[in-house]
Structures are given as structure tokens and as C-alpha cells.
Amino acid sequence: MSGGLYTQLLDLACGAFLLAAVIVLWMRELASIVRVFALQGIALAAIAVLLGAHEERWDLIAVGIGIGALRAGVLPYLMRRALAALTQDRRRYADGGAETRETQPLVNVAASLLTASLLTLLAYAVARPLTALHPTPATHALPVGLAVVLIGFFVLVTRRRALAQVVGFLLLDNGITATAFLATSGVPLIVELGVSFDVLLAVLVLQILTTRMREAFGTTDIDDLRELHD
Amino acid sequence: MSVIPAALATATAMAGAGAVAGFVLPYRLRVPVVGVLTAGVGAAGGTAGLAATGGSRWAAGLPGLLPLAGAHVAVDALAGLFMAVAGAVVVAVAVYGIGYAAGHGSHGLGSRTAQAVLPPFALTLVLVPVAASVSTFLVLWELMALASLLLVLAEHRERASVRQAGVWYAVMTHLGLVLLLAGLALFAAKAGGETFAALRAGAPTVSPTVRGLVFVLVGLAFTSKAGAVPLHAWLPRAHPEAPSPVSALMSAAMVNLGVYGIVRTGIDLLGGGPAWWWLGLMAVGGASAVYGILQAAMASDLKRLLAYSTSENMGLVLIGVGASGLFTAYGNRPLAALALAAALLHVVNHAAFKALLFCAAGSVLRATGLLDLDRLGGLRSRMPATAGLFALAALGAVALPPGNGFISEWLLLQSLIHGLQVPGVAVAVVLPLSVALIALSAGIAAAAFVKALGVGFFARPRSDEAASAREASPLMIAGMGLLAAACVALALVPGLLGDGLDRAVSAVGLPGTGAVSGGGVRVRLADISASLSPLWVVAALAAALMVAAGLPRLYGRRRRRANARLWDCGGGAPTPRMAYTATSFAEPLQRVFDDVLAPEQDLNVTPVRESAYLVERVRFQRRVPDRIEHRLYEPVLRGLAGAGQAARRLAGGSVHLYLGYGFVGLVVLLLALAVGW
């Protein structure tokens, strides 16, 4: 693969990766959010595979394919299952889709998008000295990973629905993974395997928690959980 | 091979064996075995110290002992002096402690924990001066603090107040550790090395501001350990609540290490400093001396009185150290050496009489279960040996001839009085003031110890416990006898210490003065035309006493003596309750210092029902609170508690809020990084 094509493809993948995170902020319907998250998983896999192809390391390509399978396949599937249970409820109780929509985030959508742009700027500002250390196409894309970390954290802080929270957490993790790939040009297989397994377990646990929450309180709005204090 | 490493290795091995024995052995065997091993630790450590004051030196690096930096040890004459003092105190107190803990059940000092911790505590007392790098010093310092804390807590099952004292002690000693860590780490970073040799070499390159900051930080930590105001609050709490042998060890050996720390870092490692350092130190010392002895004069708990007296004596020592630094700053090195020698001699003297006083107080506690002077009395006839030993030590504590404290205070006063030849306004103001403070504290000390001895041991017993007191066990008396012998030797022939003291002073780079050398009989000052012969002073005093006591007897023999009942004003025979108590004895003094002490009074008059004029009961209560604690500590504690209460509102329960804290923290950090670049 020629250098120019590699750079363009990598930039494209990173752009898609960041755009997916921003779209998650924009969407209200949880089903669409999960779909966008799956797309982001594909973009992340593409970044890993591109890096692997550029450096001709087959283990990196394998890691990329694994990441794609997990983040574009397994995790969205799990979330969709949790969503399906909620959708059944909607049919049963006709509650106007309050459970499957992020109707009232703590910060409204317009302000969220504005904040996302500011966070991206901050990520670029912070990553400047890192990029300057060793300027390659991969490190130039490093701020994208940081920006997704920050946007994921922002989703965690501002979204009410438990499922949206799960997506926020996964965005955060996607961002960390992307940063790791871009900064070190490849994470050892064993590390990535451990992280992925961790994420999978976290999602499984959160899925069960979501179901339980709905059963116990009739809602998945985590703002209703206020017992956790001194 | 030098004797020092061998002695130190022996001490360490014995402390290890003692700790194991304390854990493993059954109660009956535990106390004597641990006692003997602890005495061994003291003897070995003291031997090493004596060898060092005798002129031998030793230094070594033990790279495997501590991670990263390795341990560095070195012994010079200054360290040797403190080791010898600690070792001697440990030996005597260990002997006393066997008698104290034996036969009183496997709780308190006889418990497994206390007996297992006692030998390591003794070891750290000896080893702290050996440390020759910051990390080694801090590790040993912290081990000493932890071991002493466990020992203070030994009787926590018997009294709830022990736990409170333990908390105070733990918090304050660790605040001290934090200050020490900050100061020494800063010093090591700026000097480019953490061994004392590197610090010594790097100190001149460190900027004056940093040096001043280091001195203030470590000075606060060390004066707190020495029990000087304003960070003294742990001392009058921990000393009375600890078992008496532990109080003796803490008060006679541990607080000395605060002085050692200041001399080591301030004069030796930092290489002296500007006058304001030493003026500050003298101010702290002067305040401690007067305030400590005032509180001691007011206290009616015997051990509390002794604890405050420790604060006073450490204040005097700090005045001496401060004067030494001040004279060095103004370039008068012989006087500086004299002041430091006086301070070090006072450390030795104080260790001897204060250990004996605490041991005697412990004997009283064992015999009567009481420490309240108001309820003691009449112990002289029931416990003659203890009373005699207490009187001997009290004589040392009041700094009057022929007590041992007199010589060091005399030296200190000589150095201060002759310091007036040093030019400078600050000196001209501070030195006379210090002399006045020392004189004032000596006067109040006399009142305090007359009270302790007179009210506690003379007169008639004021409670059944005091009336049925029994003399302490032979081992306790033997331990106290060792200390008494040390007191007498220091009072009569302080010159035996002379060369060692000289070497200790010259170890920090000051010229030796030969202040107390000269065959052990005379104390003469080379640069100042003053001399003193303690032996002659004692002989003259003894002769005067004999004349004063003998003449009336000779004269009175010619007259007929008539024995009759004391006139009681027709009110019946006087009861012991009518005699002077500690409180009533201190009352005039309290009136004089009313503004300083600010006592709190409570008067409750309950009239008989249906009549406002007939009184059924009057209840009068008076407390003399520690005013510094009142004014300085309580606002801080209230502020902390208020901040803690306010901080609870930060945790409202919303998950979003908690996540938001993390997010905002991260963004602020990143912003700081981005702007910082």
C-alpha cells in the first residue's frame, strides 16, 4: 500500500470514528445510537487493520478483525437484545417510547454538539506535544482518539437512560483503544484480548443491571438512583 | 574491628530476640526475659554510644536493607552522646520495668503486644541517631513513633482516656512526620543527594529561601517531638496515660531525639543559618520553658506535672541550641560551642532525673493506684525508698545546687550572659530576656516540685489508698537506684562527661570548649573567667546545712522541752483534709499568672427547697485548661469538622454528579496541560 493511500484511508477511518461519536450525541432514539456505535466499531477495526497492513504485521490485522467482531457485532447484539425487552414493554404499556428514547438529556442536543466541538479542540491542544515527538500519519490522528474518550465521558455524564450510559462507557473504551493503537502502532495481542474481555463482561453486567432496573423501578433513568451517598 | 558495629549488631539481635520472646513466651517467663533482653539492647547501644563519644567513628552503607536508596548509617560523637543517654535510660528502665510489669497480670504492660514492642522501641531509641541518610532516618523515626504509640496504648482496656491520648499522639506524631518528610525531601532534592554526607556537601549551594523553608519545616517537626509549644499537645496526654516505664523512656530518651534532629539538621547538615532561624528557635524554647512549667505547677496529676516539666526542660535545651546557632551566625564560635555544650549537658541531666521521676511516679501508682496529688500524701513513711529517690530527682529538676540540673542551667546562663559581648540589637534584646525566662522557669520549677514532693510524699495521707501504700518491689528500686546513681554522679563530677561532650560539640563543626573537663571536679570556662566546682558547692552546702540544723539543736538542748497537743482553735483535731493540697498550694501562683492561665471556674449553689437563703449544697469546680490548646487547636479542629460536614453535601447521591466530578477533573487537568505547554 502506498504512503498516500494509507494516509488517506487512515484519515478517513479516523474521521468516521470521530463522526460516529458525535452522531451518538445527536441521536435520540436508542436503537439508532446502537447502530451508530456498531459503525464506530467498524471504523475502529479499520484503523487497526490499516495500521497492521501498513506495517505488515499479521497479528495486528488479527487483533483488528477481532475488535471489529466484538465491537461491531457482539456488543451491539447484546445491547439490541436489552433494547428489545424495552420495546416489548413499550408495546405492552404504551408509554410513548419514553424508555427507548433519550428524551431529556441533562444537556440538550445543541449544547452537546457544541461541547463536543470544544472537547475535540481540547484534545487537539493536548495532543500537540505528543504529535511533535514523532510526527507520522498515525500520531497526527492521535487527537481523534482523545476526543472520542472525552466525548464518551461526556455522554456518561449527561445521558439519563442506562443503555445510553452503556454506549457512553463503550465510546470511552473505543477512544482508549484507538489512542493506544495510534500512539504505539499496535497493542500486544494479549493486552487487547484482556481489555476486550473486560469490556464484554462489563456490557453483560450492565445489560443485566438494565433489565433489573426496569423490573424494579419501571424505568431505566439512572437519575432516579439517589441512594448512593454518605 | 571497631566496637561500634559489633555493639549495634548485638543490640539489633537482642531486640529481635526480645520481640519474638514477647510474642511467644507465657506471661510468667515473658516479663523477665523481655526485660533482660531490653536491658541488653540498652547496654549494647549505650556501649556503642560511649565508644563514639570516646572518639571512635563508624560509617557504613547497607544497600540491601532498604529498597531503592539502601540504608546508610554513621556514628559520630554527637550521635554517640544521644545513643549513650538512650542506652543508659533503657537499661535502668528495663530493670525497673520487670518489677513494674511482674505480678500485675498479663494486661497493660505485661501483655503480649506491649512486651513484644518494648525491645524494638528501645532499639529505635538507640538507632535513630545512627541513621546517616534521609530515608534511613525517616524509617527509624517512624518505627520509633509506631512502637511508642503501641506502648502508649498498652492500658487501653483499663481507661478510655488512653485511647483518646493515643489518637492525639498518633495524629500529632504523623503530622510531624509529614513536615519532616516534606522538609528533608525538599532539602535532599535541592542538595542533590539523600545521604547526610551529600546533604552536608550540597547545603551551601541551596538557595537561602529553600534553606529557611527546610529549617522551618523540620524545626516544627522536631520541636513537636521534643514537646515544645505550640505543638506540645500530645505530650501532656500521652505521657500520663502510658505505663510508667514507657513514660520514662519517652520522656527521657525519645523527646531528646527531637533536640538531636534540630542540632543535626540545623547546625550540622544545613551548616547553620541566619539569625532569624535561631531567634525563632529561642522564642519557641523560651515559651515552652515558661508555659510548660506554669502548667506543671498547676497540674495535680503527678505524671501530667512531670510531662509538662519535660516540655519546660526541652524548652531550656532549645534556648541553648538556639543561642548556639545565634552565636555562630554572629561569628562567635567559642560561645556557640559553650551554649551547645550546656544544652547537650542539660539533655543528659534531664534524662537522668526525669526517668527517675517517672519511675518513682510509677511506683506510687503501683502502690496506691492514684496519681492525683490531692489524694496522696504521707507516702514518706510508707515508701521511704521511693520518696527518697523522688526527692533526689526533684532536686535535680529544680535546678538548684546540689542537684544535677543546676550545672547545666548554670552553664547555659553563663553562655547567655557572656553572649552580650556579641554585637547586634537582636542579641542585646533576646539574651537578657532569655536569662529572665530561664530564671523565671527555674523559680516556678521549684514551686512545682516542692508541691509534688511536699504534697505527695509528706504530710498525712489524704485517702485510704495512700494510707495503705506499700514500698515498691526490689527490682523497681534497683532500676531507680541506677538512675539515682547517674543523677548523683552528674551532680558531683560532671567533668567525667567533659571530653565526650567536647567531641559531640566539635562533631557539628564547633570548637571544643573544655567546659566541663578538668579532672571531673571543676567546671571552668576557658574563654570566660568563670569556674565552678560542683563538689565544693555540695560540700559547702552540706556544711551549711549541718550548721543550720546542728546549732539550734545544740542551743536548744539547754532548754527544757515540753510536748503538748497542738492548739486547734477549739475546732477539734485537724483532719488531713485541712492540710495543703496540690490545688491549694498552687492557688497563689495561679492568681499571679491569672491572665496567662485563664482558669475556668464553676460555682453551683443549690438552695434548700422553698428558701432562697438556706443553702443545701455548694459545688465548686475549677479547671486550668491548656490555653494554647484552647486557642490554637480547637479552632483548627472545629474548622476541619465543619469542612468535613460541608463536604458531605458534595455527595448528593446522583450518579451523574459523581461522573461529572471525574469529567470536570479530567477536562481541567487537560486544560492545565494544554495551557501549560
Automatic annotation (TrEMBL), chain A:
Keywords linked to the UniProt accession: Cell membrane, Membrane, Transmembrane, Transmembrane helix
Annotated compartments: Cell membrane
InterPro entries in UniProt: HyfE-like
Residues spanning the membrane: 6-26, 33-54, 60-78, 106-126, 138-156, 163-183, 189-209
Membrane topology: Multi-pass membrane protein
GO CC, one annotated term: plasma membrane
Main localization, broad class: membrane
Protein name in the entry: Hydrogenase-4 component E
Organism: Streptomyces guryensis
Species classification: Bacteria, Bacillati, Actinomycetota, Actinomycetes, Kitasatosporales
Automatic annotation (TrEMBL), chain B:
Protein name according to UniProt: Hydrogenase 4 subunit B
Pfam family, one: Proton_antipo_M
Domain of life: Bacteria
Annotated TM spans: 31-52, 73-101, 121-154, 166-189, 209-234, 246-263, 275-294, 314-331, 337-365, 386-407, 427-454, 475-497, 535-555, 655-675
Entry-linked InterPro entries: ComplexI-like_HydComp, NADH_UbQ_OxRdtase, ND/Mrp_TM
Location relative to the cell: Cell membrane; Membrane
Cellular compartments per GO CC: plasma membrane
